[in-house]
Amino acid sequence: MEYWVTVLVFCVCVVTIITGLVVLGMIFWHLWRYGLDPVIDSPGSAADALEKAARKRRLTFDPN
Predict the structure, then answer these.
(1) How far is Cα of residue 43 from the mean position of the Cα atoms in its chain?
(2) DSSP summary character for residue 61
(3) TM spans, by residue (predicted)?
(4) What is the DSSP letter of 41?
(5) What are the pLDDT digits (tens) for 21-53?
(6) What is the largest CA-CA distance in the chain?
């Protein structure tokens, strides 16, 4: 019985360590890719599309 408890605890520890490494890897990849900018300001985001549309609207606006 104690053997299986040891195996179970070992497996839980291994899975926890692997999950932590994956999460840290995702965090560092995001920092390397985007810097400290939030995700909403990343290229191709909705905020970028709205800003591009507003800029186009300003350029094509003719008050006359």
Answers:
(1) 13
(2) -
(3) 7-32
(4) G
(5) 999 999 888 888 767 655 555 566 666 777 777
(6) 86
